[in-house]
Amino acid sequence: MQALKVDALSKSFGPRQAVRNVSFSVTAGETVAFLGPNGAGKSTTLRMIAGFLEPDSGDALINGVSILSDRTKAQLALGYLAEGAPLYFDLSVRDFLGFLARTHGLTSAAAKLAIARVAEDAAITDVISRPIETLSKGYRRRVALAGAIVHDPPVLILDEPTDGLDPNQKIAMRALIARMARQKAILISTHQLDEVEAMCTRAVLIDRGDIKADGTPADLAGRTPSGKLEDAFHALTKPEKVA
Amino acid sequence: MNETFALNMRQAGNALRAVYVRELAAYFLTPLAYVFIATFLIALGSFTFQIGRFFDTNQADLAPFFLFHPWLYLVFLPAIAMRLWADEARGGTLELLLTLPAPAWSLVLGKFLAAWTVAAAALLLTTPIWMSVNWLGKPDNAAIFLTYVISFLMAGGYLAVACALSAAAQNQVIAFVLSVAVGFLFTAAGLPVVTAGLTAAFGPGLAEAMASFSLISHFEAAQRGVLEMRALVFYIGFIAVWLALNAIWVSARKGG
Q: Would the CB atoms of A91 and B22 count as touching at under 8 Å?
């Protein structure tokens, strides 16, 4: 079953077309990279899927539910880690996760169990009582990810989850995502190619609002003589030459 | 359709409660609420006893005390509401909040009710003045209670304006200045000097129409011990309109 189906999404900001007729899908058990250079339209697409932006046309189905016509039900099936991993710094980790659990309709008892589960999964048990403002960037990212999965959604969208992390923190974050990958449909926005090769079963490449390629990382890499994903990325997204 | 409506309402309730508790904690787990309440009480006490000459009136009522409520609300309430939405935009948490499975109005209501609770706490802490009047004489306690209720509703009016403008403005300082300016317009419209000026310039029709939108006009009627249904309708309607604007402005500020 397609846990996430993106159907012909388009969005313009004034005269600039940010996303043009973007379609793809993600099934349960897949970890798909949403790949593209900065400004390609990745975050705009994810924001439309998450219900933060209204598309000009098209729709996104989350677990078969339209984000446009049944927004609340669709969002209940979605875990969304926004770009920059926004957090309430004045709250403790436990209170932050509790806040998200309650907004997703979990009872107090269920929220307590869910917080314990995601704290274990995200390896943040040791900082559960600490104010978020006192945590390192790596911990903050893991707290934000724990918040995205506290209601155990079948679909997970992560916008540049490892951006700005040091190599050790990246490894820890990737391990966490890999643990969740078996049960969930995961869409990860990134422009880091090592991340795609390390974690993703498929890659959808977007540039200037258009889908340029959709296939396994090996398929994409095989499109160039060198067989490197980096060269394929460059060939598919390189800027047009000025006449 | 009914199932969708039921789910939306259930989720609205969940989000409203969670946002209310989160905002209340943000007020009371930081010095914000305490500083606001203490400063408000000191200012109200000073105005009541120094300028209002509470004891010199030799009357067992709270007229000198209630007289200053609108003016203190005008300045103090935007101070507690200005952060509510401007802070979310600045900290990047607006996207987190607006992608929660809940309608925007439930988030707006949760934040507003938290700020209104802080205002209620401040108002509640003024009741020793009411007790003092009872000790000194025999006041009309029903009228005083009624005025407290209308004062609470009036505080909701000032807060609703400030909450909405916090969503519309780019930062807290602009939100505060705008809230005081707009609040002043809705206060001054009912002042005798303004109504007299408008009557002289445009006739009584416009002056009365303007005064009917003033937060202060309906409060003055309550101070006379008169419960007017139109006052209740006005304050509740005023709050509802500004909260609706708040929800519209929050939705309009979604990323771009």
A: yes
Residues forming a β-bridge with A62? A4, A65
Which chain B residue lies closest to A103 (C-alpha atoms)? B15
Domain end call among A152, A168, A193:
A152
CB A105 within 8 A of CB A132: no
Amino acid at A108: S
Q: A237 and A162: one domain? A: yes
A103 and B19 in contact by Cβ < 8 A?
yes
- pTM for this one? 0.91
Is A25 in the same domain as A129?
no
With beta carbons less than 8 A apart as the criterion, state whether B11 and A72 touch. yes
Average pLDDT over residues A210-219: 92
Please list the rounded mean pLDDT of every run of 10 residues in chain B (256 residues). 88 96 92 94 86 67 86 95 91 93 96 98 93 85 90 96 93 94 91 82 80 84 80 94 96 66
Number of domains in chain A: 2
pLDDT at position B256: 41
CATH number (domain holding residue A165):
3.40.50.300
Residue A10 CA to residue A189 CA, distance in Å, equals 17
What lies within 8 Å, CB to CB, of B200 at 6+ separation is none
Q: Do A104 and B100 touch (CB under 8 A)?
A: yes
pLDDT at B54: 67
Asked which of A98, A118, A152 is the last residue of a domain, the reply is A152
Q: Look at residue B3 in the predicted model and tell me its pLDDT.
A: 86
> Are A40 and A107 in the same domain?
no
Tell me the C-alpha distance between A201 and A191, whole Å: 16
Yes or no, beta carbons of B14 and A104 under 8 Å apart: yes
Say what the pLDDT of residue B1 is.
61
Model confidence at A127: pLDDT above 90: yes
Q: Are residues A48 and A136 in the same domain?
A: no
Residues A42 and A140 in one domain: no
CB contact under 8 A, A91 and B25: yes
The sheet with strand A57-62 has its strands ordered as A16-27, A2-13, A57-62, A65-66
Assess whether A203 and A144 both reside in one domain.
no
Chain A residues close to B4, C-beta within 8 Å? 70, 72-73
Residues from chain A contacting residue B92 (CB–CB below 8 Å): 82, 84, 86
The answer on pLDDT for A94 being more than 70 is: yes
Which one of B24, B99, B111, B248 would you mutate to disrupt binding with A, by most A Cβ within 10 Å of its Cβ? B99
Domain of residue A184, residue span: 1-77+154-243
- B99 closest CB neighbour out of A70, A75, A88: A75
